[in-house]
Amino acid sequence: MDFRLLEDMLRERGEPAFRARQVWEWTARGTAGYAEMTNLPRALREELDTAVPFSTLAVETEREARDGTVKTLFRTADGHPVEAVLMRYRDGRRSLCLSSQSGCPLTCTFCATGAMAFGRNLTASEILDQALHFRRLTRVDHAVFMGMGEPMLNLDEVLGAARRLPDLGITHRRTTISTVGWLPGLKRFVDEVDEPIRLALSLHAPDDELRSRIMPVNERYPIEDVVAECRRHAETTRRRVFVEYVMLAGVNDAPEQGRALASVLGRDHFKVNLIPYNPWAASAGGGAAGARPNTPPSATGGLYEGSSRDRIGAFRHELERARVPVTVRLTRGRDIEAACGQLAAAPRVRRQSASVSQPAPARPRVAGAPRTRT
Ligand code: SAH
Prior knowledge:
Structural class: alpha/beta
Oligomer: single chain
Number of helices: 11
Strand order of the largest sheet: 1-2-3-4-7-8-9-10-11-12
Bound molecules: S-adenosyl-L-homocysteine
Shape: elongated
Strand content: 15-25%
């Protein structure tokens, strides 16, 4: 729901100031539409229906994985694709993965979103409407800004949305904003955000040479500066910053790289989350037909292979030996391309193709991308 539009409309109509709040309370609780907002005058409800679309996003396709993960492809009113994911865990957690931009201007070589065209920043309302969509399906209690886009390039809108999430049932402590370490936004986040929203850093390499190869943004904001800023956050908030580290076979998963990572991070300020790499080859004939989680990416045209379990285990052991807290992320929704880093909508999916989502376009990778394995 476009809040600015809502507030303008209510003001023009001469409604009392509390009306916007009433509408929001109903909406945040998962109400399906204005008709159900029974403490609003009927005539107002009808007018709202035509003047303020209940969502800024239209659902284009929705798929549910065997593990209960739901991935939804939305369109903004001006036609940009946006994906978001609901993850249901066995312990009862219901976690949302939200997008901050349509596409992403950064070109991390292992990320599907990085390979698609950048559209634009999303508004706070468009970010919140992703969450509200799932709130209408189920209760929700966690959110991560780990969908499409770089939140620190769109910080005001991301915060605008994050600040309303508690009304949906998602507290700030259960909200995580993830960044590549885009310093201008990150500095502002550290300086200005008082709420206990959690911070995650996508690091993926222990040294600048490798990180720049797989994440071109590192040329601009090198590891030392980014880690220092995150450490400042950990020190001022006394909360650890999560470090995301996607495990790429033969690229960043050697035990000595684990030791190097431990010495970059130290014991006190970070918690490492090792992420099994999720293949997403655009040329796989993917989409609905591409449900083949165990196919090696070499067979589907991808750049990387995920590290084996043993390799992840050995890497983890190096961090544990150095007393750096570490976990391995559970993978959800692989069979519907809803897993980490797989969000990339095809630019020309037709609106009526309700049950088929199409593969992302094949496109040449950025210059200087690593070949595959070393
Ligand atoms: N731009 C922000 C938000 C996106 S988060 C950021 O990079 O932090 C998406 C997370 O998933 C990042 O940690 C990203 O590195 C990771 N990721 C991207 N592609 C992936 C893939 N194919 N498999 C596993 N994780 C991936």
